[in-house]
Amino acid sequence: MKHDENGDPVLVMELTTTAVETGHEVNVQGVLLEMRKAIQKDFFQGGYQSACNRIHPATLSRLQALETTCTITQNGRHVLSQTIVAAVDSEKAYVFSYAGQAEAYAASQDEVQGVRNSLKF
Q1: How many CA within 13 A on the CB side of residue 86?
Q2: Which range marks the domain in which residue 60 is found?
Q3: Fewer CB within 10 Å, N side or C side of the chain?
Q4: How many domains does the chain have?
Q5: In the prediction, which pLDDT does 115 show?
């Protein structure tokens, strides 16, 4: 979690892992689509609008991944951004998510990329 000078959170990063059964093939794109829909629904219920870009190839540490970013607005003003990156190897599925206030999100891209690159799976 990254805080501003007042101690208020402005950026949150989260990594979740889930064990994958031997032989099970994870539909990473399907998982990411469902997560994106859930985010959009949750923000809509809170009075926000969201627009997400297309799911596209990315990397998470050494793994091939898929990624999407949602821009959250309220009354036409950009207030938050959230990115979700999903990857899978032979044993686990990984989801790295980060979200933040518009300005903090934009200003933290190099820092977030450093965290992504430093992950060891």
Answers
A1: 17
A2: 24-86
A3: N
A4: 1
A5: 93
How far is it, in rounded angstroms, from Cα 15 to Cα 9? 17
Question: Is 60 within the bounds of a domain?
Answer: yes
Q: How far apart are CA 77 and CA 48, in angstroms?
A: 10
> What's the mean pLDDT when you consider all of the chain?
94
Buried b (16+ CB within 10 A) or exposed e, 40-72: beebeeeeeebebeebeebebbebebbbbbbbb
Task: Report CA torsion sign: 49, 53, 54, 58.
Answer: negative
Residue 98 lies in a domain: no
Taking the C-alpha atoms of residue 19 and residue 102, their distance in angstroms, rounded to an integer, is 33
Question: What is the predicted pLDDT for the residue at 23?
Answer: 85
Residue 6 domain flag? no
Looking only at the bridges linking them, the beta strands covering 77-88 and 92-101 are antiparallel
Q: Which regions of the chain are under pLDDT 70? A: none
Cα–Cα dist 54/66, whole Å: 10
The single-letter DSSP state of residue 26 is P
pLDDT tens for residues 3-24?
989 999 999 999 999 999 988 8
